[in-house]
Structure formats: structure tokens, C-alpha cells
Amino acid sequence: MIEVEHLSKTYGTTAAIEDVTFTVAPGEILGFLGPNGAGKTTTMRILAGYLPASAGTAKVAGYEVHEQSMAVRQRIGYLPETPPLYTDMTIEGYLHFVARIKGVTAGDRRRNVDLALEKTNLRDRRTTLIRKLSKGYRQRVGIAQAIVHDPPVIILDEPTVGLDPRQIIEVRHLIKNLAGNHTVILSTHILPEVSMTCSRVAIINKGRIVATNTPEGLLAQLNSGTGYELEIEGDIHSVQPQLAAIAGVKTVEILPAELPAGRSRVKILAQPDIQLPGREIARAIVAADLGLLEMRRIQASLEDVFLQLTTEEAPLDSAIAETEETEEAA
Amino acid sequence: MQIILANIVAIYRRELQSYFRSPLAYVIAGIFWFLSGLFFVFILNVTIQRIALADQSGFQGAIDAPYQFYQAFLGVLSSIAMFILPILSMSLYAEERKRGTLELLATSPVTNWAVAIGKLLAVVTFFITLLLPMLVYQFIVLTASSPPMSIPLILLGQLGLILLAAAVMSLGMFISSLTDSTILAAIFTFALVLLLWIIDAIGQQLGGAIGAVFAHLSLLKHYNNLAQGIIDTSSLVLFASYIFLGIFLTAQSVNLFRFQRS
Fold this sequence. Notes:
By secondary structure, chain A is α/β, with parallel strands linked by helices. Chain A is 36% helix and 28% strand. Chain A has two domains: 2-221, Rossmann fold, CATH 3.40.50; 226-298, Alpha-Beta Plaits. In chain A, strand 12 and strand 13 (263-270) form a beta hairpin. The model of chain A has no long low-confidence stretch (mean pLDDT 83). Chain B is 86% helix and 0% strand. Chain B is globular. Chain B starts with a helix and ends with a helix. In chain B, 37% of the residues are buried. The chains are: A alpha/beta (330), B mainly alpha (262). The interface between A and B is medium-sized, with 32 and 27 residues.
């Protein structure tokens, strides 16, 4: 449904994205995960036809986003980084306007607007002026505007930003329900969000795609990379079998290194989803009467991307309890 | 074609709605009606006094009082409009840029042309609304006068005013599409209007072929043609050209500037 090949975008001399390639199958939800400034918004804007790419091609539903712009525009719903709202209109009036310019026929318009209001839980606010809405409500109107014409492809740039925890859950639920009938691509910098909503994840960092996988596969890929690197004094081969026998160890590898005679460098990698018992490794070496000069945790290459991501969220349950309390108080 | 028309109507309706909901529009309308009403009475008094004076001094020739009055009043209306038009057109695109709604329009199946035409039609409609009460005054006075003024002549003057406004606001719309500051858009539009207003005088100073070209570009000169009841095709063509130029440049700049900004 979405095919992106070798896409690049440069502003002057700085590259916003470089050689980005990925595909999204029909009915799939792809999460576009990356730290701030990684090029998520640029990619989204190119896909929506708002920006032209410097190089490469992007196709949505078989149409090239820049050359066949009008055909693409008819088939996408797009929520930009800041929701594009006319603050002097009511929610309902605004959605009617969007439905009209998106080419929804007069007969279907009322039904489409009602459905979008229903899905985003805005029914009881339909006649409120957008100017008077809080940020969370505005974000929801932004999502409603992206789905009001029932497009086959939906592009959401940070859809849960500015929402309170309860609304975040609602929006994630909504996005999940869009899958199947719609192809969705959403960007986020929150790690748990993709594992909750997306069927596939593309990780982007500094304008490049670092990895594409299912959320589970990605976690496995990430964990398989963890382990220890050691510097040992003495005959390493005598202790190698004992190290390999420790529960959870996948490989024990002697690294080529320029060290004084009698010393060697060893890399121990863990099996997926297992925290290596560092204590036992150290004990095995000491028991073999070898010198342990250095012991250091090593991380997979993906890890430095993840470190920049929000890997944790505020506990949702307590936050919901809080909002309920304040609502009752109000 | 039908879709494009439907899009123009959609943009037009939204834009017009926002005018009638904006406090600024009401303030402008209030000021416009107050000033033009004031001048209406003032010019009417002056005209009547002048005729009375001529009668007293025993002047026998015919004075076309309604015509003189109408000329003077149209001149004042256009001068007031010059100050108001840049304010009406300043937010057409600047506001869309600031709010980020340009991103919505640019990713919807609507052409830039349809957006620009819809917006211009809306702001011209709003300007016509401003003229309507004045038109009622003028009809009452000019048809009751002796000799009464012909209705086509009155309407021609109004058409001139509307064309002038459309030309100015079309260029104003283009300027508005260049910036996301409404104040800047208003100031630059006003400067441009002033230039086109006095370009006639500059042309006369220069003389020669270039001077003639400058003189021809003058909005004031062509507006005066229509206000005097002269239907000059070249005047109509000039106004139409200004309007088209504004729409064309707007459609282009929306594309271009979208591509350059991050």
C-alpha cells in the first residue's frame, strides 16, 4: 500500500532523511519510531505530498506522491505534527468542511462526520468552537479530520502527543481498530506505544532506517545484543568451557586485540530475553585462578537509539485514578 | 470541473464564515460605515451649498449636481477603501500558515488555484457587503435629485470600486502568502497599493514611452474612468490582469514556499 524506496530529503547541505526504504502492506499498522529530530515528520510530510523528496520514490496505493499528487491526496488522511484546525469553527462545521474538500459526496457527508465524531468520542462536543477546546480535544479533532473521509491510507504524525493517559488509551484503541480496513503509518518517540498498537516497527535515527521488524522481533533483536566484554590475564582457553556452560550464555568469543602477552579479550553474548549473571561469570574466572582486569556490559547497536526514546511511561493506572478523582471533584 | 467548482465553493463558504465571525471584520465594517457615512453627508452639504451659491450669484448655466456629488463621493470611498483593503486581505494566507492549516489544504485534493479563487471571492463578497448600505444612501439621493442620475451610471461606479478592490486584494493575497505575519502582509500590501496609486504621477514625471506604461498601470486612472461612467475596455482588462496576476502568483508561491521551508 505504501512503498518507499531510497527516499532522501536535504535542506541546503543538511540531510533530513537519507536513503529511507520501507513498505507497508494493506491493512497493516506501521510504527515509525525515532528520537526527536530523526526525520519522522519529514518522511510523513513527503508521504502526504506536502514536501517533495530530493531523491528516491514514495508510492501510496500505487501512485507516486509527487507526480500523481491529486490521486494520492484523495486516498490519504493526514494528521500533521500540529493539528490543522480552524479555531473559529465548531468541531462539526470543521469536519463538514474537511469532508467537503476531501471530496466526500453531499449524501455521505453527514454520516461520515457522525462516524468520525463517534470514533474519536467527540459527540457531545460537536457544537463547541475549536478555539475553546483543550489540547487533548484538539488532538482528537485532528484525528477525526484524518479519518472523516474514510481514506484507505492514514498518516498520523505523533497522534498521542498532548493527550492525558486515559485519552492515550482511547486513541491507541481507535488506531488498532483502524487496522484491516485502513493502512496506517504513525510516528512516535514512545517505545511502548508501538508495541501496543503496531504490527510492524521501523526505527529511524539521524535520517536513516536502523531496523524494521515486528515489535517482538525487535525486542529479541535488541536483547540478543547484550552481554559482557572481559579482559583476562592467564590462559583463557582453560576457562572457556565453564563460561559457555553458564545458563543463558549464547557464545563465548575471543576477540583479536593487541594486548601484552598473557592477556586476552573475550566477548560473551546472551541468549534472547535473558539477563546474563555477571556474578557467575566473574566467579568462574576467579575460580580458574585467572586475573579479571576488566568487565564491562556491552549493548547492541540499536540500544543507543532506544536510549534516546522514551522507554517508560507514567503508570497508566494511577494516572487514570487521578483523572477520575479530579473529574469527580469538578 | 464540477469538483473544482465544489472546492471553490467550499473554500469560499469557510472563508466568508470566518469573516462574519471575526471581531476584526466588524470593527472594520463599523469604521468604514462611519467614515463613509460622515463623508456622504459632508459632500452632500457642500454640493448643495455650492449650487445655492451659484444660484445667488445669478449663474445661468446648468450644473449637473448629482454627477459632481457622485464623483466626489466615489473618490472618498476609494480612498477609505485603500486603507481597509490591506487589512481585509492580510490574513488570507498568513493566518493559514500560522495555524498550520495550509498543510491540510496542501494535502487535500484541492488545487492551489481553487483555494486562491475561493478566498478572493470571499473577501470581495465581504467588501461588497460593506458597500451595500452606502449603495442604499446613494440610490435614495441620486434618484431623487433633479435631474435624477441614471441607475446604470451609479452601478458602473460601484463596479469600478469593486474591481479596484478585487485587484488590490488579489495582490494583497499574494503578499499574504509570502509571510506568516499578518501585520507584515498588511504593511507591504499598503505600500504596494500606494505605489500603484501614485504610479500615474510618476509616469507623468518620467514622460516618454516608459512614462506612458507607468501611467497605464495606475489603478487610480482606470478607476476614475469607470467612476466617470466611461466603459473603457482597456481599464477592464487592466483590472482583470491585476486580479489574475494576484491569483497566479499566490498559487505559485504556495507551492514554492512550501517546498523551501522545513
